[in-house]
Amino acid sequence: MEPDSQKSLSPIPIPEPIIDRDPKMIAVASADQLECCREMRPHPVSYAIAKRVLDIIGSLILLLLLAPIFLVIALAVKITSPGPVFYKSTRVGLCGKKFQFIKFRSMRVGADKQLQQLLQNNEKDGPIFKMKEDPRITPVGRFIRKYSLDELPQLYSVFTGEMSLVGPRPPIPHEVEQYDDLTMTRLSVKPGISCYWQIMGRSNLSFEEWMELDRKYIREMSFWTDLKILLKTPYSVIKGDGAY
Q: What is the tally of structural domains in the chain?
């Protein structure tokens, strides 16, 4: 079977923007004004109840089953690197609503302050930063990032309703400030832990390919689409391709 990451991306029909605002507003003025700068209507989800039930049951089961792994990772992070076990940052969710995003810490303390020094080494296009040999990542961090183990705490955000098991990955506010109208449509659905580009190449894809696949998900949203993505996610995680 051909790996998903090697599949070519054919042109994807673009959904109509679900944004009601003054057309003269070109971009978000600042992260602090994110919630009020754009009046966005959520994308209609016909299976919303079934999706929420799947999120609650799925996240609860995974939180219970993976509790021993949580403990092992927490100890590994704490013992091998000074600083807290968890890393918290502000992310942008459904219709621009901000929430606290939690991961197992995979970088040295103060890594955010070192970002400016590394921008010239950015290996991705668009408003995101990615660097394969990022010197801020700890040895344990490199391992848990490769297999997406650092993302496990987000299951709690799924359980509380801020995220979904499946949906576009939640962006950082300063990334959203650089979004155009078309890219902004990805905020019309609840962000998720896994998505199309998580199972089709991850960081090996360009920013525009990420956005195309997010728009594809919005067009194809259904209970069965979510199940398909969830069933393919473990294989992609185990392969570890495109994760850094």
A: 1
